[in-house]
Amino acid sequence: MKIMNITLSPELENLVNEELRTGDYFSPSDVLREGLLMLKESKIPREVRRENLRREIQKGIDAMRAENYTTYNADELDDFVEDIIKRGREKMNKQNGEK
Hints:
Layout (H helix, E strand, L loop, with lengths): L9 H12 L6 H15 L3 H20 L8 H22 L4
């Protein structure tokens, strides 16, 4: 991975810092990475995104019909969501060569 130096306007730097304060991101790189991924996604034609969404919804419907799902109670939901976020960040960092 090549190291890049990026200069941000004070307004954009404040935005990155605000996002870091939410606790949703571990580093400025995480904030910028998500923004770039959103930019990339926004360039995908609407019909392609819609078809991808339909396909994913159908997968969920098929799994439910096959009774291939897990039920969680409200007490477990917060831990479940935190685990998903943690695993997603770990996967993203691994893909980007970070620890």
